[in-house]
Specification:
Number of domains: 1
CATH superfamily: P-loop containing nucleotide triphosphate hydrolases
Order of helices and strands: EHEHHEEEHHEHEHHEH
CATH architecture: 3-Layer(aba) Sandwich
Largest sheet: 5 strands, parallel
Strand content: 5-15%
Mean pLDDT: 94
Number of helices: 9
Number of strands: 8
Structural class: alpha/beta
Shape: globular
Low-confidence stretches: none
Radius of gyration: 16 Å
CATH class: Alpha Beta
Distance between the termini: 20 Å
CATH topology: Rossmann fold
Helix content: 40-55%
């Protein structure tokens, strides 16, 4: 890997997408929301009436669909930017994200996408620094209190977020893990610009050593 990659991981509602977008904008780098990819596959499976528990069927779907995440999330040209955040998708995405076939397909796409970017890339998800880009320039693990994360998720609630944590941490395929060499930041009560500034300071320090 020759280009710079900042890998941001963390549980649901920890601020990954918000921080990653702001960080990419501040650096002038590309941004990839991997969670949106899994949500898009989930959305398409539900749209087609595919049982999300059917691993082979959902795996085949993940390998065949065309996905974009910028400027809007689309599946086979259909805009699903709003649909992927609905309760129906919230309730099924953890099952799809735990599918090893789906993860293999998405990881391959994520690596290819990053390789095509001319400048650095900010990538966020749950297995970015441990599985997708273990040699990332900088690894960041964001966390926040359950109460704060539930508040950020709106109507999802603490119980739903806790279930997501349990599913993401205990799945067999690429579970949520904090990399040993990650910069760990608790975002509870912190402003986005403050968190972004700390990450940039860490990146600058890496380059100066």
């Amino acid at each position: 890997m020759t280009q710079q990659i900042i890998a941001i991981d963390g549980p649901a509602g920890s601020g990954k997408s918000t921080v990653a977008r702001a960080l990419a904008s501040a650096l002038g780098w590309a941004f990839l929301d991997t969670g949106a990819m899994y949500r898009a596959v989930t959305c398409e499976a539900l749209e087609r009436g595919i049982d999300v528990n059917d691993e082979s069927a959902v795996g085949a779907l993940a390998a065949s669909v065309h996905l974009t995440t910028l400027p809007r999330v689309t599946v086979n040209g259909r805009d699903v930017e709003e649909v992927i955040r609905t309760d129906r998708v919230n309730g099924a995405v953890s099952v799809v994200a735990a599918n090893a076939l789906v993860r293999a397909s998405m990881v391959a796409r994520q690596r290819q996408w990053a390789a095509e970017q001319r400048l650095g890339t900010v990538v966020e998800g749950r297995d970015i620094s441990t599985v997708v880009f273990p040699e990332a320039t900088l690894k960041v693990f964001l966390t926040a209190s359950l109460e704060e994360r539930a508040r950020r998720r709106g109507d999802e609630g603490e119980a739903s977020v806790a279930r997501r944590d349990e599913a993401d941490t205990n799945r067999d395929a690429s579970p949520l893990r904090q990399a040993d060499d990650a910069l760990v930041l608790d975002t509870t009560g912190r402003k986005v610009d403050d968190v972004v500034g700390e990450i940039i300071a860490c990146l600058t320090n890496l380059h100066s050593n």
